[in-house]
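Ticket reopened. Same input as before:
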Amino acid sequence: MPIHEKSLIRKENLIRNEKLALEGVDVSGDWSTFIGTRVITDYNEALEGEIAALPGGEHIHRCWQCGSCTNSCTVNAINPEFNPRYWIYLIRLGLEEELLRDKDIIWQCVSCNKCTYACPRDVVPEGVMKATAHWLELKGHTRPSSSTIFDEEFSGQVFAKGKIEEGRLMRKFFARTGQKLAQPWLVAIIRGLVARMPAGLLTRLGLAALIHPRTRDWGRTRDAINEYVIDQHARQRRALGLAVTPTERHG
Amino acid sequence: MSAPVLVVGGGPAGLSAAHALASTGQRVLLVDKADRLGGAPILSGYAKLVPSGEWARDAIGGMVRRVQPHPLIEVFTETRVTQFSGEPGAFEGVLSNGQTHKVGAAILCTGFTHFDSNNKPEWGFGTYPDVVTTTQVEQMFSSGKGVRCPSDGREPERVAILLCVGSRDRQIGREWCSKICCTVSANIAMEIREALPKCSVYIYYMDIRTFGLYEDKYYWQSQEEFRVKYIKARIAEVTSDGHRLIVKGEDTLVKRPITIPFDMVVHAIGMDPNVDNRALAPLFGVELERHGFLLKGPSYSAMGSTTRPGVYVAGAATGPETIDDSIAQGQAAAMAAIAGLRMPVTALAG
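Engineering reply: fixed in the latest deploy. New output:
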């Protein structure tokens, strides 16, 4: 494949002057078209370490670019732009700008883990994708994804109470992601529950939604989890060179 | 007892052959053009050897100390063979010291010559002092001085190792793979990372050939434990911005040109045929193969044969070779020489 292949030319690298004369020769329009350089002039040696500091990214340095991950990828089969092998390479060499071009694709990993089983070097590319999406969020390049928000609400309730209350989880999740609570499918489920559920159970469900019960003797466990989570968040932010912000304590 | 066996060259193969012969009671004349025994690992000041990790001066030095005082081995340093004639079992060799010796057989352990990086001027060797060879880095370690930029003695923060310098290159008539440079480079990269943890090491490669058991011990370990980075690019040229070296090439995985600054560039130099081979071949009446190494006979009937009966060959004289295999071939050639001396050549030929 020649390096001047058309697909490698980016719009922003095309230079064209509507009116230009060079040494008295009119080269206006297409005659003055130039393609700007694509030269890589340095490596950012911190990037690999940043991804490796996030859960899932630990083994990224093992990659030798065989392409097994991309070849086995469920998402790549639908979207050829989704290329874990390539992103791993960009991260390892610290080609951050190039990585950011794909920031709106990377989160599309469906965690099928086919790559995990195909990888001859145990890089765990699925984990790397997760870490990379996480990195993009922490660095502010992408907004927290719906699944991140769901995870936060879900684990936040577990940390605080030792159990979750589905109604509250759904309300919070829909509110934070800007979705209507009155989803037709949800309404149908609730109607069905009300119609079919024994009155005793229904009452307990209703009470739980109001009182938010917690697991018995949860306090010490909650404190230990909080301590660990706060510690992990601080460690991750430090590894990414970000200011350590106070983490919300649950409970 | 039969006439002695002439061993030419006192590197790993020659030392091994001489010791093996003497162990069976066979007298040996060991001739080396250098002022001491040991061959490339000693003369070029190698540091820790692959794959043992032992210092060359201990490992190969130990082989020298075993051979030097042996009562059945007569050592001639700073000596060359000037004439060689006769038949298997009854050769006559004339040495540069004027002596004539009757020998039953000869084993050529004449080794190789390091590629001279001046023959690839586009990669900056000889132009920029901070462009060095793997041999020079070995010497930095073996001398105890450590890896420093020759220009000003500073510790490098970023080192590039260029593979296949003087190998796999039709432009300079070297169409062979030198076999050991990938492994040696991975080893050097790990040694640099160990000695200078703040220094990043990048290896620019066309293919990685850390064959056999060197795969995980060198290639994988250098990546996984020592975070050495491998980049698939054959470098076009090494220049300078006046302060640092600039390595230019194409990163074939991102299909983009690169111009990356480095403090030090290391050429992983290959193994050339011994520069003396053009003279050695007619002197001993043996043929060279197409690249200029000594031509081996078929291995299936007798290891270490050349195109002339009674003259054997071992080690890197026949092509790029590892130290361990050179030692094994030295013993194999010794065995073949003894067999040849004790059995009529016609019987072997049948």
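Residues 219-239 of chain A form the longest helix (21 residues). Residues 196 and 202 of chain A are 9 Å apart (CA to CA). Please confirm and we'll close it.
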